[in-house]
Model the fold of this input.
Amino acid sequence: MPILKPISGHTSCSGVFRYLTKDGRALASDYINLDVPERDGDAPFDWARIMDDTRHRHGNDRAWGGKPARTYKHYVLSPDPEDGIDLDGLRSLAVSWAQEHFGDYEVAIVYHDDNASRIPHAHVVVNNTNLATGNRLQDPDPKALKHSLQAMAKGRGLHDLDTDLPGLDSRRDRFRRPPTLQAVYRRRAEAAIEAEGGYSWVADIRRRVGIARAIARNEAEFRSVLSSIGIEVADGSPRAGMQDWVYSMAEHPTRRITGEKLGVSYGREAISRKFESRPFGRLGDASERRIAEIARTAFELGDLEELRRLSEAVDYVGRNRIRSVSQLEASGAPGEVSAFVKSSGILPDRSSTRVVPEPDKEDPGRTRSGSDKNIPCRNPNRSQRREKER
Done:
């Protein structure tokens, strides 16, 4: 589910241009209705100057109705962390979406990955002047733009938001804005405490939630795993407009925080989608049981360092879809993660391949080799090829 955040600009585009291109952090850029000249050196293409000139020529940078002109729209398109979309996939999605809605406008799309999880996201800047008519951009319906983006995401095999999810009671709730767009969100105070070697209860909750999220298959299991490692889960108050979960420490109930304040991937919405996507990307049964066992033991012994190491290992394994020690070694995992995975036994040495029997076309409940559904059948086409080779 990509998230779309709209921002209105009322000044020159030079400010947003500097913000998006400073320190060389832009991964790539795409343009619509902007001719990019051949450039010498590494200086970025100054699309802001062209947008400002276009508005000025059409008189669209002057105040309107006693209010400052809306000079541009800035949309932040953040993909779902669970989709694992790469930069090329994001560029295709962002350009297609911008072309559909702003094909007659000057558009600059700049891509960053300057968030905690290094997940690429797109900044779409749309100038306020329609090149075909010269008219000002009328603020598009935010819901229509989001619906379109979800439809495009679904067409590319990504998660979409236009489905009924547990805990979302109305269409309006499905389009609420989360408190942060980052998959993992660490406040400055939390980072400062951990940098000094201190204990952050917020980080502790996040780690335990991350472990439960990785091994639970549904909400009941999720709550059960968290309960076994000292975290209680409560539903947010609908009267307060909260559809998120609230996590708290069983031994310190005042230490409580909503899921999305830990990062969008820890909220009720993202975790519910993860349950719906199972069994795709799920760890093996033995791995899930072993992780749960280590987490419970570490909690019972008060070994927070073990929980930290387990959380980091589970996070790395999940993000990189690693299912065996051999895959872990090939991925170039950090030394601490690799050592912990090998010593803890949370992954098998090699991935196992599951053989699925072919159903009998006349009786889908039977395999072609007989009535025993657990016995894989032989591929008849392969047998025919062998007969021909003889």
Observations:
- The mean pLDDT is 80.
- The two ends are 53 Å apart (CA to CA).
- Strands lie at 3-9, 28-32, 72-78, 107-112, 121-127, 231-235, 245-249, 252-258.
